[in-house]
Amino acid sequence: MNDTTLILLLRAAAVGHFCIAILSTQLPRLLHWQDDIARMSLLVREVFKIHSFFITFIMVMFGALTWKFAPVLAAGGNELAVWLAAGLALFWGIRTVFQWTFYSRSHWQGKPRETAAHWTFTIIYGIWTLLYAACALR
Amino acid sequence: MNLLTIALYAAGTGQIGILAASALVPRVLDWRTALSPLHPFLRRLFWVYGVFIVLTITGLGTLTLMHAPAMAAGEPVARSLAAFAGIFWLARLVVQWAVFDARPFLTNAWLRAGYHTLSVAFTALVIVYAIAVFTPQPAIP
Predict the structure, then answer these.
(1) C-alpha–C-alpha distance, residues A96 and A17, integer Å
(2) Interface pTM (ipTM) of the complex?
């Protein structure tokens, strides 16, 4: 894969991170969690909201770093960029594994919309794992 | 080795130490009981969020330890990573002071000491990363 293609894919991944960040702020509304969240104890509700905030923030920062340093990540040779790419590959690799091992299949099996979402995220996370791994191994 | 590099090594080590402290949180706050009434998917998501925040802190700490000299020298990728870490810990500090009211959970001297130690650690991390971002010290050849 040449540098130009890799840069293009990294820029697409950066935009994808921004989309995940936006999506994660909308999850309670999309998945109708408002009532569940309202029933949480005050502490659990606060921790949940803080966790959600930090996950969104992390997605924005991963996206920003990927967008800004796409040429450096694609070129290889910069030691920190190589380790950053390796870290991102590990992050998304673990997330891909979690998609299949941590969440119960009962959440999506037999439900067309949830099944489509499950496979879409599996494929996106898997592609990002391979993309960052490719940058780390250059 | 300049002072900023040493401070960044300490920051990297400190983040690993913070993770050790954060491992106690689920037990101290009895998350298992607190989360049991939730829908199973939300309960899983809660843990997944926690795991990936821990992974991110591990990454920030490890990359800081491995590349402290580049960060201190203001190398572009390292400087941006320092900005990421600085904003992350600044947000965590704001949460510590402005969002959570931890007083009901600080039931003994050890927990109070731990809480205040964490506040100091978060502040120190913000300061060290801010110095790396705004006044890096390029290595003298």
Answers:
(1) 15
(2) 0.87
